[in-house]
Write a structure and sequence with these properties.
The protein is of the alpha/beta class and 145 residues long. 52% of the residues lie in helices and 17% in strands. It has one domain: Rossmann fold (3-Layer(aba) Sandwich). Helix 1 crosses helix 6 and helix 3 runs parallel beside helix 4. It is globular and about 40 Å long. The N terminus is likely disordered.
């Protein structure tokens, strides 16, 4: 029983250390989502918990304008299902503008045709809402730009 407790404590220490390392990097993150409440909520979490600089865009078109202005982002999270420019369209356009961008597609629609299309394009596609442990894994694996 003691080893289980130690493992749990070690896991928490590792998690706290990862969060501390993420905070020290002051990541620049863009969130693209037509669901204003979700975008604001994720942005709040990224700012507060990870000390990231976050820009929230309500459409893929708005995001393209920001990227074309030569602003640098460590990662861009985009919703998959949006009116107008879908997440797969945003991914393709963002990669055309800057192939080095890290783009993560988020969706609550697992297994949809757009989900399959995103996977076929080689995208990292994750479930909404984003699990905290998975978010730490994503952010800790980024190369700071």
């Amino acid at each position: 029983m003691t080893s289980d407790k130690n493992t749990a404590k070690t896991g928490e220490v590792d998690k706290a250390e990862l969060i501390s390392q993420i905070r020290e990097r002051h990541l620049t993150i863009m969130v693209i989502d037509d669901d204003e409440l979700f975008g604001r909520s994720l942005g709040f979490k990224l700012r507060r918990k990870y000390l990231a600089e976050v820009e929230i865009m309500n459409s893929g078109e708005e995001a393209m304008d920001a990227v074309l202005s030569n602003k640098s982002y460590d990662v861009i999270f985009t919703d998959l299902m949006m009116p107008g420019m879908k997440g797969t369209d945003a991914l393709q356009e963002l990669k055309r503008i800057n192939p080095a961008l890290t783009v993560i597609i988020m969706s609550a629609f697992f297994g949809s045709e757009e989900w399959k299309k995103a996977k076929a394009l080689g995208a990292t596609v994750i479930h909404k809402p984003i699990d905290d442990d998975f978010l730490i894994q994503i952010l800790s694996g980024l190369q700071h730009k």
